[in-house]
Amino acid sequence: MSKFNPRAAPPPGLFDSDGPTRETHIMSLPVSVRWKAIFLLIDKAGGATLPSVADLDPKDALKVKWNPLAVVLWPIYYVYLGMWKKGLLAVILALLAIWIAAVLLKGFGFGILVKPLFILPGMYFGRYANVDYYRRMVLGEPEGEWLKALLK
User: Fold this and answer.
1) Torsion sign, CA atoms 28, 60, 74, 33
2) Widest CA span in the chain
3) Quick check: 131 and 38 in contact, CB under 8 A?
4) What is the dihedral of CA 101, 128, 144, 4, to 10 degrees?
5) Domain tally for the chain?
6) Is residue 116 part of a domain?
């Protein structure tokens, strides 16, 4: 089994001049037209790391960097997209961080600030849902391999 690098380029030969272009690959994916449009915008922004997102129209940049449905339905949305392992880990880490922050805030007398902390996981999921799904569908990142690469 080869090591997976989440920051690596797509495998050689996948988008060479002999084979399909990235656009034809995206258009052949079994996803909705909305997702195909978002994937094409992410590709136009330079890929999963979004190095050229500033070159996009502000409306298109917002589509790439923000997913309002993921903000509202954060744990369920990742399960729906088939990224349940990543979603589960993010939920566990988010709730752990909120619990630690709540204990600290209450200890210092700022207990009123605890409830707004529950907005933060939704903001995280809303920001990264599109790019995570792009990595899974377009780049072929296997589910769970990112965790193995992270832990090594």
Assistant:
1) negative
2) 64
3) no
4) -120
5) 1
6) yes
For 131, the domain range is 22-151
Q: What would the pLDDT profile of 8-35 be if each residue is shown by its tens digit?
A: 555 554 555 555 688 898 999 999 999 9
Count of Cβ atoms closer than 10 Å to residue 7 Cβ: 7
Residue 138 is which amino acid? V
| pLDDT, tens only, 69-94 | 999 998 899 999 989 888 888 889 99
The answer to whether residue 10 sits within a structural domain is no
Tokens of 29: 């994916």
Query: What is the pTM for the complete model shown?
Result: 0.79
Q: Tell me the C-alpha distance between 95 and 46, whole Å.
A: 32
Q: Does residue 145 form part of some domain?
A: yes
